[in-house]
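Supplementary Data S3. Sequence and structure tokens for construct A.
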Amino acid sequence: MEHQQTQGSAPIIRPITIFDTTLRDGEQAPGATLTPAQKIVIARQLAKLGVDVIEPGFPISSPGDFAAVQQISRELQTVEICGFARAVKADIDAAVKATQDAGRRRLHMFLSSSSIHLDFQLKKSREQVVALAREMVAYGRQFVDEFEFSPMDATRTGDEFLFEVIEAVIEEGATMINIPDTVGYALPEEYGAMFTRVMKNVRGSDRVRFSAHCHNDLGLAVANSLAAIKAGVSQVEVTINGVGERAGNCSLEELVMALETRKSAMGAETGVKPEHIFATSQMVSRAMSFPIAFNKPIVGRNAFQHEAGIHQDGLLKNRNTYEIMDPEALGIPRSMIILGKHSGRHAIKHRVSELGVELEGEQMESFYAAFKKMADRQKVVHDHQLLELVGAAVNQVLEPFALKSVQVVTGDAGHRVASCTVRDEAAGQEQVFIGTGEGPVEAVVAGIKQALPFEAEFSDLELYSLSSGEEASGEAIVTVLAHGQSYRGVSAQRDIIMAAAHAFMAACNQAARDWKQQENVQATGTADGTPHVEITIP
């Protein structure tokens, strides 16, 4: 294991190359297939994120993959593009041709090395594998200056043969040696020690760079990658959200933020721009139709949310009490306080005041009792429900608009039609609006939009099942863009169309409250930095 070097009293921070294989290894996850157009859009975002190398696909695998790699190579001239190939001349030719217009490129070739792979998959002897590795590296090296070689299933290969294969490909001109934990078998101390032994015992290892590629079958991909960095590797291969074969790959966001948060301890850093992490995560999740686990580190829904009263109290006093990273620096909307049955008075009162209402004395007691009853019935009390409870406590209606009823006519042909009754609380009147769309949600949204005095764009919809069986409830999370801002509404119903409708209405009410506050500020000239502006309810 390498000792961390120091310069004076400050540690030397090594740069780690981030090799993103979301579009190749990540896409190999069952059901994660991307169209060429989606790959190009994600590749642009990866370049914006600041990754050093993009592996956009497997060019020989399909005409679509070839076209995507070719287009990405031509367009993204500032990022190194990697063409992926088996130890087969046709694969190498396709990878070379697809990446020929890249500003910087490399070839990445893999070949199995473990006995179980040689005996049951390749059906070749060790001597044949070494000869094939030499031949194909020499062939590919004619076309590119940077050649990366991966002995597949390296962690189950054994030192003697692993050293032999690596030594052979270095002699033939390989410039990067990637030692993959293909099946996620290694423990961190084993994986780091393997690199140390290779660097010490393989002739020519001082002439090449080393890379780590870890799978997450035992949940150790990030830990193993960190161990490899400690051992001296200069590149780590990752995917957005950790997507990939079986349990996936080393997660880019987790590795990058581990290095960023513990930079001094690790003596390493990356060039990734944290402010683009969340947007990139969301883009990949939607394109692959892979939901992100609520408890996923860094980008999961609960990663920066807190319900326990003692945690909420600490956060309101100083964020660093329970958060080691700033979510807003990662591009994550700030919503750290989640109100539920574990929430304390301090957090609840704070959130109510953020909504522009101050509760004291009997009003606070009445509201708090009603809140606890609702929190016992459901997991989370959302803002629109909070305002209903506050309104009952102060005998006022605080939401600008109320969705009173929805009727949808649907079927397997033609457009869907929705009739939406919306009450404008300021005007004190109800109106019925008719909307149409190709789907029932689109029809409902079209109807509700007609009731609003501002433009609201339906930006995103997330649906989650909260239980199982015929009586299951669905939770809808809707994101709306209005006034140049993003607003999020949540609703849980047994009818998922109604859940989406009420979530959309909740998000639009947030936008309406902001719009009203801005009107009040402009009318009264009280933009004086006060903590909040109270909403005037007619």
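Construct B, processed identically:
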Amino acid sequence: MVFRTIATTAAILVGLALTGAVAGPQWDPVPVTDHLVPATEDTAIGGVAPDAEIGEVGEFEVRETPVTVPLGAGVMVGGLLRQPLGDDGGVLPDRPGVVYVHGAGTGKSTQAFTESATALASAGIVTLVPDKRLDTYTTRDRDYLAMADDYLRSVDLLRTVDGVDPAQVGVYGESEGTWIVPVMQAKDPLVAYTILVSAPVVPPRQQAAFAVDSYLRNTGVPEQVFRAIPRAVGMQLPGGGFEYADFDVRPWLEQQTAPVLVVYGTADPSMPIEQGARQVIADTAVGGDEAPVTVRYYAGANHGINVPLDGGMHLHPDFARDAATWVQGMPGTADAPPRIAGDTPNQLYLASAVPQPRWWGNGDIVVGAVVAGAGLLLLGPLVWGVHALVRRVVLRRASADAPRLARGLRSSLLGLGIGSVATMVALVVYLLAVARLALDYQRDDLVVQGGWIAVRLLGVATAVAAAFVIRRVADARAQRRAGADVAVARGWPAVLTFWCTLAGSLALLCTLAYWGVYQLGI
């Protein structure tokens, strides 16, 4: 009996492992072997003409003025204009201007880019941070082309501001905003320059997979967990939408005609910091040499080019200096050597196309399988319980002909149902715990390694319960063939409970196999 149970359990585990292997793609990112080597650690911008008037950060007083940006069709957003002031308190004449484009999430002009916009303004550059338009921006739906049109209204407004040289107005984008900025420059070639800070360059789906991989590696998760990356990121998410996940900015980069400053922090694990710079250089060269590219890497800087300073995270001081010099020193600074300078980046893997799941590529199916499985596990026992209550209280029937399961099958089914639910809950809790550690950029081997072992042990225990169910069913059928009055399930409530438990558990076990709980190196 013990040997048969072990053999049956092993067969179940192998079957689930095979199911998980064929149900979706593997994850095998390509290592970066050809690394970028900056020409110098000094990020200072060269090419400044001897007679150029280059303001330094902190040189000028800054005046902040709330503004309203009309977007058309009666829609307006607020904004915050920062202007450098001369010794007489008046605005400086003929200054370059910068419009800021927000990254992902909400963006209030009074809260976003405060250090950057103020620093550039104090160096002599007029800055405008508009509020992000949110009525057309959701987690599920985003239109980067329409967003580019909206932000170009801020460019138009800044060109009319007193003291701004309209021919020297450029755009600064960060993170998600760097998918929008190249569209803006292609649509309006009069945009004088663009600054791309922490630019993914690759489509959002590829960047998401890259970021998840990077965060998980830092957290130290077991290798088996990585299989979940293409299955989660590559699937069609539940409820549809998210078409922007495959937005490709490269055709817009190929249309650039203005100088580009590309900036990364080498402590930013979420961006392909070497691949992104290479891609911008390559794509902007497609149309010729009209869009020179300057690349800077800042040591210890994170996604927002912030570093630990004065007990908090603040903008890297060299970045503000360099950006101000680059903007004010045009055109000499646009293509001045060195093109690539700063801290040495170390991107481990390429951000590549995400393999698409096959059978479970639709997120609605994945969610539906879990909901249906849990519902079936609840349905059978619930119906049986109601039926038993009605028999006992209302009909007052004897228990001799009550529904029943074969000997030992009830406890085995109970173990199978509880085990499959418990394993699913444990997997969700584990993934949430790992996500919290990853986002906080922390490691906890007890949670990461121990938690995964616990989830897999629960999965194995559930497989053992499934083996007991199979053995109980086989024994009951063998006894029936021998002439005994034995049935696997007697009475429709028992039959319903039996099949609901099997179907519900199978749905959850296949889902667990899909997410890698039953991997055996297959």
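The chain has a mean pLDDT of 91. Residues 2-24+357-514 form one domain.
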